[in-house]
Amino acid sequence: MAVMNTTEDSEKKNLNFIEQIVEKDLKEGKNGGRIQTRFPPEPNGYLHIGHAKAICMDFGIAQRYGGVCNLRFDDTNPTKEDVEYVEAIKEDIQWLGFQWGNEYYASDYFQQLWDFAIHLIKQGKAYIDEQTSEQIALQKGTPTQPGIESPYRNRPIEETLELFEKMNRGEIEEGRMVLRAKIDMASPNMHFRDPIIYRVVKTPHHRTGDKWKAYPMYDFAHGQSDFFEGVTHSLCTLEFVPHRPLYDLFVDWVKDGQDLDDNRPRQYEFNKLNLNYTLMSKRNLLILVKEGLVSGWDDPRMPTLCGFRRRGYSPESIHKFVNRIGYTTYDALNEFALLESAVREDLNTRSTRVSAVLHPVKLILTNYPEGQVEEMQAINNPEDPNSPTHTIEFSRELWMERDDFMENAPKKYFRMTPGQEVRLKNAYIVKCTGCKKDEEGNVVEVYAEYDPNTKSGMPDANRKVKGTLHWVSCAHCLKAEVRLYDRLWKVENPRDELAAIREAKGCTPLEAMKEMINPDSLEVLTDCYVEKYLADAQPLDYLQFQRIGYFNVDKDSTPGHLVFNRTVSLKDTWSKINK
């Protein structure tokens, strides 16, 4: 009987289905045992959380199997693309912890693609069609009904070559002509029904300027670019499943008789990352930015990677989330709460604990000596046994959270209330003696007496009390602005809701979005106090405001005006709200 290698067996079980395919391809010696992937974003917007899943797959496969992952910008539509997006995409990939082997652009292959298109025309496999886009769409037929051939399908090759040259010289207006591949108008695969492979675009390109006026379509450029670069595994999301036969056909055509059976790019598809309460279409995100519904692509409410980064998410937490949801061959709507759970889990291990009071009321320790200041030591991260400490000052007058005091409290209220003891974290046990109110009945001061024998290391330090409160010293803290972010959308599936509203009301995407936006997605608190230890905190520092949540420094923060963003609360609140 064979002895099972349990470690190897366990690793096999942990492989996702793409990794299993890659291992099988390697075992069979395909592509000479090479692994080469690519991440091919279009530079027409900023990357969002959905792209993170693809990035982790493309770069992760290359890392795991000793291959290379290249970055290739799909820059075939100059009307929507910009250098700003190119640089932002690079920054986001590196922030996630990946580095590409080579940097390519689809525009690097414009000449090769043009030459390939000329070759197809000469072979009778492509023709210029002068019909409108509406006419072409109508003639495509349906999945159960064959299409109708274009009246231009059999035009002479020389005429097609001449018109194709005119398209690229700028002599043909946009939308007037297209180049179509001649395949099969009766094919059950709609993508085979003479797909458009070139169209006229007269907008200058961000890299090639005015050199080209005829631009290849994605389906025509993508597979050929993979082939030119030597990609072995072209990993895509599920909407490209019906495109795969066309991908393979174009690769067969471009190889032009070469034997590629074991040395060709192979397309495999996995599910997209879909999140509830999230809208991830770059087209719709651009509307939010341009119409001022958010402050920019990096608004912390946006699902963009730069938005999550600014909000305080760590790259490790995104990796953890992607690994947790996994890769499958069917689409599903994931809970946003699962992403937040991964963020909490990660930040718990790396964030520095500090004190911050967001809704302050003054606490006066009436028996504490006036003018006296003590330096208390606070552990930066109790999850780390080697964590350093920092100093926080303690004095007679402190700021405490307004919600931590109740004058007439119920029996099981364990915070500050007259006659009850609580511990002030890292300091003393105090007993509340009363409060002071203004003319309108609002509490403006809370009074308590401290027990000097309850400081750490003193005789009564271990006396049990049921409540522990955070605080900052009035004379030793810094004022701060705190931004409390929540979900941008108040509906669980904004993509489907957007479509439903537009269909029902005949309105624009912007008008439909305004109906769905959560009015409470941002609350700005301007009268907060934080311990002065945070004077030198920087963006991308991970912080836990004790008993409140995880926070980080916003890019708007200055030494004279500190600004903090709430990354995520300590506990999931949305799942309770939505039940």
Descriptive report:
- The chain has about 575 residues and is an alpha/beta fold.
- It contains 16 helices and 27 strands.
- The chain is elongated and about 100 Å long.
Task: List strands and helices in order, with pairings.
Layout: H1 6-14, H2 17-27, E1 36-39, H3 49-64, E2 68-73, H4 83-95, E3 103-105, H5 110-122, E4 126-129, H6 133-139, H7 157-169, E5 178-181, E6 196-200, E7 214-216, H8 218-229, E8 233-237, H9 244-255, E9 266-270, E10 274-275, H10 282-290, H11 305-311, H12 315-325, E11 333-334, H13 336-350, E12 352-354, E13 356-357, E14 360-365, E15 374-379, E16 389-394, E17 397-401, E18 421-424, E19 429-437, E20 443-450, E21 468-469, E22 472-473, E23 477-485, H14 494-505, H15 509-516, E24 522-531, E25 543-545, E26 549-553, E27 562-569, H16 574-577
Parallel strand pairs: 1-2, 2-3, 8-9, 10-11, 12-25, 14-20, 18-21, 23-27
Antiparallel strand pairs: 4-5, 5-6, 6-7, 13-24, 14-17, 15-16, 17-22, 18-19, 19-20, 23-24, 25-26, 26-27
Helix pairs in contact: 8-9, 12-13, 14-15
The fraction of residues assigned to DSSP E strands is 15-25%
Q: Which segments are poorly predicted (pLDDT under 50) over 5 or more consecutive residues?
A: 1-11
Overall mean confidence score, pLDDT? 93
CA radius of gyration is 31 Å
Query: What is the terminal-to-terminal distance?
Result: 54 Å
Q: Could you tell me the number of beta strands?
A: 27
What structural category arises from helix and sheet content? alpha/beta
Q: Please estimate the helix content.
A: 25-40%
Number of helices: 16
Strand order of the largest sheet: 12-25-26-27-23-24-13
Shape: elongated
* Biggest sheet character: 7 strands, mixed
